[in-house]
Protein 1
Amino acid sequence: MTRTDSPLVVGAVRSSPDSVLRVSNVVLGHGKAVVLRDIQLEILPGELWFFIGPNGSGKTTFLGAILGIHRITSGVITLAPELASRQMVGFVPQRCDAKATLPQTVREFVDLGLTRAGISAAERRENIAWALEMTGISDLAERDYWSVSGGQRQRALIARGLARRPSLLILDEPTSGLDIAAEESLVRLVVSLNRDLGITVVFVTHVLALALRHATHVALFHQGRITCGKRDGVLIPELLREAYGLDEQLLKRLSATSIQERELHDPRVHPVLGSLSQ
């Protein structure tokens, strides 16, 4: 297969020896029920992918398959050789899995990301300090994890995912439950990790506005399939109408201005589009 630069990649995978992740003809399901079929996707180093789609469209199931948690029904998922063991894949879950009754500092929480890492104590300390610095929470290191704000706890979750210095970072709806200011701050952090450190990112969200502002590539989950490619080729009115059932007024607002020129900072929030300007 040959790589294509077409904005839409449907039914064909861009083939490159440098792929971070390649998914070919994958079918996923729960029992006999098929959730996703004929998945074709390739992610290259340094790309910033947003996985979007309505609730229940299969995003979490697909993440589980990438992480090796959910078995595929058929097809092939191939990770780059250095990622094959998943040890160098950073994962940020939607919610904190730590017990609120267990006291621990932010530093101790981030250290959990190095469980069974097999590195020296010195390297462990260095990795934790680096992860805290990269997420802007070094000054919170000795604070109790549960005493800091929700946005700061989410940054600690990202720091935990960074502790192994991964080349691929996967985030499952990390802005869920945050207010608009904290959401934007967190997304800008993720964008900087991608842009400044070259970390390949997969960001799962149901907020379309975030993908409009920040994605280089998008995978749109809808009706048991995934449409994927460059952002401006996937986030088009026809596909969004099909996936979300958006009304004509909202589709016209999407079409009125180019994605690059859009500024979505209005405090009014649409449940799918997020913040919308006039």
Protein 2
Amino acid sequence: MSIMNVAHAIRNGNGRVVSLEIVPPAVGSGIKAVFERLDPLVNLGVKYVDITYHAEQVVEYEYANGDRFPVSQRKKPGTAGIAGALLGRYGQRGVEPVPHVICAGFSRHATEEYLTELGYLGIRNVVAIQGDPPRGPDGRKQAFSPSPGGHRYASELVRQIAALREGTYVGAKEGEPVPFTIGVAFYPEGLTQPMDLGRELEILAIKEREGADYAVSQMVFDAEPFLRYRDAAEAAGIALPLVPGMKPLSRKRQLQSIPGTFGCAIPPALRAAIEAADDGDVPRIGTDWAVRLAERLRAEGVPSLHFYAFGDTDLAPVLEAVGNAGRRSRTSEGVALPSGEGI
């Protein structure tokens, strides 16, 4: 079984590479649901699957001798285990698992142990991000602070992973190299408002210098912010392949929850269409928008397409349509793309 270098596949895929991002199931759920979700999507040509990692959450406090002690739990554990399971189930079909590695909750030594475990499993592609801060018992996000001996910024995490490619370890100083390919995140609409494009590009450039191989965007529903960022990155000398991350909306409540969680805007035309629709029509509208957005971005030369498979979104119609569009583009010139404000 050969191991795919995700960055190489993206660079040489001519826009044909399609990938997914999944969330581990909650404690008490099994791997069966993951396979049931992915089996039909893998059949539609998915090349790699990102697996998110979730920091521990304080679920309660215990008291002893007048002192209060937090009790933590990782409610969606198993990133490494799922990566190994996906490799075993889909590896012979050329599908690569790409687990996330995060700063939140990890010291450098704990990061090294996790990466060592991934290496033993045969994993050679990872995504390095800061990660969401943990939540308290009330469910609210706490302020991010690095663990003692850990990393504050994703660029520092990239540096540590890149060092393993040279056989440089934290604990053992020198050892066997582990040739990880490193993906990172970028934010064409910014994580905070107002958007500071110069600062966002500076952060991505640092990640590239530290050893990142490719970058995937936050969720985008509008091609223009992504394309502006891409063009500015190229002008700034950033050579990383930049991949758009997309998700078809399936419920009206996502018009509020997704911008608040992921820092992205919903284009007015999409928002108006969903607000005016019956609940049962929302998935169709979301699918149509995602397909047209993917076709527009592919026509603009993006190297690959990444879809967030969170929640109950049915991605099969999107992947089927994107795949058919790809086959048409190889056999005909000048595919006419549907127009739409925000696409």
Protein 3
Amino acid sequence: MSATVAQHIVDALADRGVGQVWGVVGDALNPLTDAIRTHDSLRWVGVRHEEAAAFAVSAQAQLTGRIGVCMGTVGPGSIHLINGLGDAAKSHAPVLAIAGQVPTDEIGTNCFQEVDNDRLFAHVAVWTHTLTSTAQLPYQLERAVNAAYERGGVAVLTSPGGVGMLDMPDDAPAPLVCAAHRGAPSAVAPGGTGGRGARQRWQCDDPGGTECPSRPRRGAGGGRHSEGSGGGDSQGQDGHGGRQSLPSGSGRTAR
């Protein structure tokens, strides 16, 4: 039986050391929260407000050096994440926010609770992208995680309603994330003082190698993507500073 997009994302995050996902459940996130519910090692941490989830993963990332993951769904949930993600951006903490969205065929129609997440998060995120097909995985998930680590900030991956339930191809590869990105930061970035507000930098042990995410990958797919400016540069670079070589239940029932 083929894994769904949601199961693929959840399995990949667990394989990369993520132990908890914080957030508020909602319709567009149902495939993801259900995949977490049935996963052996990943735990869902429900909160009363998405802002609390974003602050929690920001603190978690700063204390552990591992990427923190939070979720909010559609307009209200996504907007509520902003404050905590702003804290992560200012602290250069590696955070992945997965945002729910209205169904793909309703994007751009002024649908109820629709918000353009890529524009919404542009000022706090170093990377944003809206998934529209299975062809964009695992490449875009790789880019999200590696951008958050290497550029020291927030990556936002948006999943429209229905996309999470799509079946992945049986031969879909696992995302490539450097082993060095699973632990604490190796050094402060050049120019940093190591004091308050210093930017941390995660180094790759094998840049350009077969297991390095900077290695060119094919099948990036389409979708909407942008390099943000929140806490990182906006030069459209990959996770290792080089130019890209590829084209670019108890929740709120209204969501």
